[in-house]
Specification:
mainly beta; Jelly Rolls; 3 helices; 16 strands; elongated
Amino acid sequence: MSNDFLPFAVGGTANVTPQATYAADTTLLQGGFASGIAKSPDLNKVWRQSSIMAAVLAQFIVNQTGQNAVDDGTTTTLIANLLAAVQASSRAVVGQARNVSAFLAATGPSVTFTADEIVVQSALGGLSYLLSSFSKAVSLGTSGIGGVVGTTPAANGFAAVYAAFGAVAGTNVFVTDATAAKAPEVYGGTLPAGYTASALICIAPMGTTTANFAPFALTDRKVSWSGGNIITASTFVGGPTIRTSAALIPLNARSVGGFNQVGSSAASAISQVIAGTGVNNMGGQFNTTNLAAGSSQAIPYEVDIVAPQSIFTQSANSAGTPGFTVSTNWFRF
């Protein structure tokens, strides 16, 4: 990349007025140089100060955007690139977004992701870029940008979807596997050619083959889907018991929700608590009730994920054969 804006009179022996003399010159605070003989050291000093700042600002544009700073006598491109450079050096958090959405009503290979704005970065703590009016489709049948990058998402597993940006290539999206390893907030592999920044925008459930996503809906960082039962049990557990489900709770999940259901064959005082840890039912969601024989009660729950892909349950029952079910149909990542 090149910078046409060059500093003037910067050599070690440059013919310029010393800084102390220049700072004390009353000309600075009055009407400028008076008419008469021009003093080259004073003029060189003025030109150097202005040219150095122009050169620094132009180099900032080059460094932050990868675009040339061209002196073609116009300002339009320089202003646009300066704005991009300021955005790239902002301290925005990667993945910050407004109104991220996606919806797939039936099993299929492609889905479109939209957002008002998304922040992508070159690395955690790296250069930031703000993508506005985002709308891109990703397809499992495509290799590279707009499709699969890196490892193909596993059947019945999970896919990580990333927004991507390059100064020349523009805005796009791609997908990679998030079943066997937690997906980082900035893509950890090699980005497709022309792209320099990325951000995780979705963890999508996969269908029964690697060719299709399962139906899902994305709202910001919440993914709703059909899910399933994490546990179905006919005996109670008196102490906190870990329940791990790699098929229903992705490694990126920060919280999970669904229904906490209890039932009994006889009239019973019955309860089940779902929690994110096995310590004192911390943050637990309780379903405690007195049931008539053969009845059941289901209530919604939401708990944080502390142990990867796991929740904890504890239950009790006073009579009859109990039924305990914990289902999930959404998660946040």
